[in-house]
Amino acid sequence: MSLSKTLYLNTTQKEHFIENGFLKLPQAISPLLLNQLRDTVDAMCSAENQLSDCTVLESSNKNFVVAIDKIIAKSNPIFAELLGSPLLLSIAESLCGVDFFPVQDFIVIKTLGDQNEIKWHQDVITEAHEKTFMIGFYLDSANNENGALRVIPKSHKSNLSICELQKMEYQSLDMEAGDVLIHNLKIAHSSGELTSFPQRRVVYFEFMSTKEILNEQVYPESFVELRTRLIPNAILCFQQKYREAIPFQWNHPEKDNYVPNSNPHSFIQELYQEPKKVKAANYCFDFIQGYTS
Q1: What is the pTM for the complete model shown?
Q2: Cα(159)–Cα(139) distance, integer angstroms
Q3: What is the mean pLDDT of residues 126-145?
Q4: How many helices (H) does the chain have, and how many strands (E)?
Q5: Are 20 and 183 within 8 A, CB to CB?
Q6: Is 132 helix (H, G, I), strand (E, B) or coil?
Q7: 95, 136, 154, 184: most buried, per Cβ within 10 A?
């Protein structure tokens, strides 16, 4: 569907997400945007030596770009336009409420031969929060043998450790290019390396509720305020690209305090000069007695 269309989740979708910890939205992005995102990601990977916030993995004497961070601050504004789109922001409001804010944005890339397996983990080590989520825009298909997200359904509600959760039966969330996947930050998940598909590229955004996070002191108020400033500027980036579209109606209770800059993308790049303060993920580290490496 078009970026200019809102996608407010219905009651059934929200209940599925809250109960199971994940929600799949089939074919949520148009073929045109899909190809534009693919071309942009490929260009960024080709320029890895000139690109900051790029993670490179060496495997079989070859270098593979496996992650790119802070993507909305990169020179191509396509990711800022995506962040400011009615499509994405309506989903964020559906799950977090009107006081949502974006925590981080990045791309994860798997390439055949990179041997890039993501171990079992949870995206946060804090208590479970209902109004938090990660959303992934899939630029390629994925299945259990080719990088699909593997999740332990309902594990976001469990008090078991990640080392215990990873031993439970998992569900593979197979995806098609153009699909969108939303998951709770606390759900246990992993993904295997590719065995036959050439690539699996996913564009990620993380969102939280301001009130929920500040009440539990997950992030300082200064960080939340800084990240909230991204929203009106991203909306303006979207407006400047899609001039015929109706912009997202942002209903943040303090929106009058967040006036967009006349040059929104440059302003976003300035905001990203601040140090990143994202909380660490929660991985399982199993140690076998008698071995130290």
Answers
A1: 0.94
A2: 34
A3: 90
A4: 9, 12
A5: no
A6: strand
A7: 184
Instruction: State pLDDT tens for residues 43-74.
Output: 999 887 777 889 999 988 899 999 999 999 99
Closest by alpha carbon to 45, among 53, 137, 176? 53
Burial profile 73-83: b = 16 or more Cβ within 10 angstroms, e = fewer: bbebbbbbbbb
Please tell me what DSSP assigns to residue 155.
Answer: G
Task: Dump the DSSP string for 85-129.
Answer: SHHHHHHHHHHH-TTEEEEEEEEEEEETTS--PEEEEES-SS---
Q: In the 3-class helix/strand/coil scheme, how is 182-230 assigned residue by residue?
A: EECCCCCEEECCECCCCEEEEEEEEEEEHHHHHHCCCCCHHHHHHHHCH
In this structure, what token pair is assigned to residue 68?
A: 């790119």
Retrieve residue 42's tokens.
């490929």
> What's the token pair of residue 125?
């080590």
Rg, Å, the chain Cα set: 19
Distance between CA 169 and CA 222 in Å, rounded? 40
Cβ within 8 Å of residue 124, ≥6 positions away: 132, 185, 186, 279, 281, 282
Residue whose structure tokens are 């943040």: 252
* Cα–Cα dist 185/131, whole Å: 10
Amino acid at 101: F
